[in-house]
User: Which sequence fits this backbone?
C-alpha cells in the first residue's frame, strides 16, 4: 500500500498515545522511525513499533519517563533516560551537544539507561547538518562471540560515523553492526528455512555453522575477524563501562529472557571541523568532496547512497510504499491500545 | 645477539645524531623505537631507523624541525610538526592533551605535517597510564582499494585504541592497520617467493590474487569488506581532510616515487572516564577488569597480550634479542653518518 509520511506519522503517534506513551516519546520515536521508513531502512522503520509495545508489555520501557541531565561539565553532557527511549534523551541532548562541540571543538554526549531501537545514522545526520563530524555507538544484547571463543560476550554493537559534505542531504555516513550479520538476518533465515552465509555464526560447540537454529543456540561472529572483534569490544568499554552503563551481557540479563529491546547507554562524540580548519573551513567541502567523488568514479559504493536515493524518490513522489501486512499489524496494534 | 635497552638507546641516539637529527628528534624517535623493540613489535622497532635515514636522504623529513603549537582553543590542540617526526610533535603535545582531557572530559590533539613511522599504541599507552581512554589514527600511502573498486584510494590507515585497566602495564589496547594485511607482509612474501593468503589483494585488473608481485602492481584490500573499507575511509577524512592535512594519495604523491615514509597528520582523541563516572570512577577498573577477564576465561585472546608478555620477559631478563644482521645494518648506518 501507499501512505504519506504525514499519515504514517499520525498512525505512529496514535499507536504510541494509545499505549500510554508521553507526548515527548510519541514525538521522538515517531520522528526517528518515520525518518528511517522514508529512507527504506526497513529494519529501523515503523516495524519497530511492534517491538517497542512488546517491550512495554514486559515492563522493560517506561512510556512516560522524562530524561534528566545528570551532568554538564567541560565538554561532556550526560543524560539519564530513566528507562525511556534513547530517542527522547537524544531530542534533549543533541542541541546541547552541538553547542558544546562548537564551543570546545569536540564534545561527548553520554545517554544512560535508555531503551535502544533506532538507527545510529539518524542522530549522526542531525550532527552533519549542523556542520559537525560525529561518531556514535551502543552495545546491544550479548549474541556475539569474540574472535577465538564461543562465549557470547559481545552485542551486535553498531557504530555510526558522519562527515559533512557540501550537499547537506548526502553526507558521508556509515552505520553498521560490528557483528558479521544482523540478528534479524539470522531470524529471517530461520523463518524461511534457508542456510546462513559462511562465516557469520558458530554452533554451541564453537564450530562454524550455516544452520540458523544452531547459530541461535551458539553465537554470532563479528565482522573482520580479530580486528572487528576488537572494535566490538571497544563499543562495550566506551558505551558501557566508561559511562557506568550496561554491557550487552548485562542488558541481556536485564531482559530476563523476554524478547525485549536492548537497554543501556549510547555515546556520541561530535567534532567541529571549523575549529580544526580555521580560515580553511571550506576545504572540508572542497577537498572532502573531491576525495570522495573519486570513490564513485572508481566504482566503489559510498555507504548510505541507497538510503539517500530512496529518500529523494519517496520525498518527490510524496508517499511511502508500506507492506500491507505491516500496515495491518500496525492497525491491530492501535486497536489493542485503544 | 643480546643487547641491553640502554645500549640500544645509545646506538639509536648515535645513529640519529650522526645523521644530523636534533636532540629532541634523537630522544623522541629513540624512545618510541626502543619501546617497540622491548615489546618485540619488530615492524615498529629500531629497524625503522633504516627507513628514517632513507627518508632523510630523499629530503622527505626535516631532521632539525621543531614542532610548533598552531592552535590551542577549547578542547583542541593543533601542532605543526614542520616535516619532522610525529614522535617529536607527540612529545610536545601529549602532556597538553592530557591536561585538556582532564579539564574538559574529552580533548583532541591534531598533529600536522609529520613523518609517520611509529606504532600508534605507544601514545595510546601513555594516555592510559594517565587514566585516559584514547583513540588515534593516521593515513599512510595509498596502496589499498576501497571495497568494490580497484583504485588505491586508501592507505593502510591504522587505528589505535586504549582503555585503562587496574594493572597500568596491561591496558586494553589495540592498534591495527585497516588493510587486510600489512604492506610489509606483501613485500616479505615477494622476497620469499611465497603466495599471499586469500582475500588480501587484487591485481591491476581488480581480480583477486595471491601473487605478491601482481598485488604490488594492483592494490591491497581492507579488512572486513565494506565495513572495514568504510572505517579506512573515516581515517582519511578525520586524520586527513578534517585537519587540513594530506590523504594517503597526497602523501604518496609527495613521496614522488621515492620509498619514503608517509607524511601527513595524526589525530588523537582522549577521554577522561573520571569525569564520566564521577564518584563511581573505580567502576572503570572493577567492572572493566571483570568484563575483560571473561575474554581470557573464554579463550578469546585480548589484543596486545603477546606484546605485554614480551615486555615483561625482556625487562626481567635485562636485555633484548636483536637480529645479528639488523645490528650490522645499524652499525653500518652509524658509520655512514659519521
Assistant:
Amino acid at each position: 500500500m501507499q501512505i504519506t509520511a504525514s499519515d504514517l506519522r499520525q498512525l505512529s503517534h496514535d499507536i504510541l498515545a494509545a499505549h500510554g506513551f508521553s507526548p515527548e516519546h510519541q514525538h521522538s520515536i515517531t520522528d526517528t522511525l518515520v525518518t528511517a521508513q522514508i529512507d527504506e531502512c526497513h529494519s529501523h522503520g515503523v516495524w519497530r513499533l511492534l517491538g517497542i509495545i512488546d517491550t512495554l508489555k514486559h515492563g522493560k520501557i517506561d512510556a512516560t519517563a522524562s530524561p534528566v541531565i545528570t551532568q554538564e561539565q567541560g565538554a561532556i553532557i550526560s543524560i539519564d533516560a530513566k528507562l525511556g527511549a534513547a530517542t527522547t534523551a537524544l531530542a534533549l541532548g543533541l542541541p546541547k551537544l552541538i553547542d558544546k562541540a562548537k564551543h570546545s571543538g569536540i564534545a561527548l554526549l553520554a545517554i544512560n539507561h535508555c531503551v535502544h531501537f533506532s538507527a545510529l545514522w539518524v542522530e549522526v545526520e542531525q550532527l552533519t547538518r549542523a556542520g559537525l563530524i560525529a561518531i556514535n555507538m551502543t552495545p546491544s544484547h550479548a549474541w556475539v562471540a569474540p574472535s577465538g571463543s564461543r562465549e557470547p560476550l559481545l552485542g551486535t554493537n553498531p557504530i555510526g560515523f558522519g562527515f559533512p559534505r557540501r550537499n547537506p542531504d548526502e553526507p558521508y555516513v556509515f552505520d553498521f553492526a560490528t557483528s558479521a550479520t544482523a540478528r534479524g538476518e539470522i531470524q529471517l533465515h530461520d523463518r524461511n528455512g534457508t542456510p546462513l552465509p559462511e562465516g557469520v555464526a558458530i554452533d554451541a560447540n564453537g564450530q562454524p555453522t550455516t544452520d540458523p537454529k544452531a547459530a541461535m543456540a551458539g553465537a554470532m561472529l563479528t565482522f573482520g575477524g580479530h580486528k572487528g572483534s576488537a572494535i566490538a569490544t571497544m563499543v562495550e568499554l566506551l558505551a558501557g563501562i566508561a559511562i557506568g552503563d550496561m554491557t550487552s551481557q548485562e542488558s541481556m540479563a536485564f531482559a530476563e529472557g523476554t524478547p525485549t529491546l536492548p537497554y543501556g547507554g549510547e555515546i556520541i562524540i561530535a567534532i567541529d571541523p571549523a575549529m580544526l580548519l580555521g580560515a580553511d573551513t571550506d576545504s572540508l567541502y572542497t577537498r572532502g568532496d573531491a576525495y570522495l567523488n573519486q570513490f564513485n568514479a572508481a566504482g566503489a559504493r559510498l555507504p548510505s547512497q541507497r538510503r539517500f536515493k530512496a529518500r529523494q524518490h519517496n520525498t518527490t513522489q510524496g508517499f511511502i510504499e508500506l507492506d500491507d501486512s505491516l500496515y495491518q499489524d500496525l492497525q491491530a496494534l492501535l486497536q489493542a491500545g485503544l
